[in-house]
Design brief:
mainly alpha, 6 helices
Length: about 220
């Protein structure tokens, strides 16, 4: 594909934008699978569905990398992509943490609320500032946050699938990899903590950036 889309021109008919839409479709399938588990299944069915959910989420996150890579490589920029890409990211991440409250006792209801609040706050700031004609692009802290979130969700799903028998936290009696139970548990706890820290930190970074822009 050698044809370049002029910057700012609305266009769905390019591959990066189509990949973004594919990520949205994948996320909807992912939410359906988690919804099935959340409504109660036997241990074996839960394991199969959550392992498939893990793979589906990782595929969705790969498409996030792929559409950005192709857009940069081919110098494609469109209004649709600029709006849709971060919007779909928010759906995938916020929706995932909300659904995780139904399948894991490690994710309390307040946890996704902090993530959703941060996303609404930063999106509102960006919209307000850019409506005045001032650029307010993504900060490095936001990209780090998204990377950590993208590691936390599949790690938690894999742990729940292969070591936990139900949403109440009962452990599988004979897991396939018994030696990984404790290390993976503490890895998940560390990633959940890192997600929370990066969420708050990136919010502070954006607030500081917005304050500087508004004062100038």
């Amino acid at each position: 594909m050698n044809e370049k889309t002029p910057a700012g021109k609305p266009s769905f008919a390019n591959l990066p934008n189509q990949i973004t839409v594919t990520r949205l479709v994948l996320s909807l399938g992912f939410f359906v699978l988690l919804g099935i588990v959340g409504h109660g299944t036997d241990s074996e069915t839960r394991q199969v569905i959550l392992n498939w959910s893990t793979a589906l989420f990782m595929l969705a996150m790969f498409t996030d990398f792929l559409d950005g890579y192709l857009a940069r490589k081919w110098n494609i920029e469109s209004t649709f992509g600029r709006i849709a890409d971060p919007f779909v990211d928010k759906i995938v991440i916020c929706g995932s943490f909300i659904m995780l409250t139904t399948i894991s006792d490690l994710v309390e209801p307040w946890y996704p609320l902090t993530i959703v609040f941060r996303e609404f706050l930063v999106s509102g700031l960006r919209s307000f500032i850019e409506s005045a004609g001032v650029a307010f692009g993504a900060a490095w802290a936001g990209k780090v946050k998204l990377t950590i979130q993208g590691l936390t969700i599949p790690s938690l799903l894999f742990y729940e699938a292969n070591f936990i028998a139900d949403s109440a936290g009962a452990k599988i009696q004979e897991p396939m990899w018994p030696g990984l139970t404790a290390p993976l548990y503490w890895l998940v706890i560390a990633l959940l903590a890192a997600t929370l820290i990066s969420t708050f930190y990136s919010c502070i970074v954006y607030l500081h950036k917005a304050t500087k822009v508004l004062r100038s």
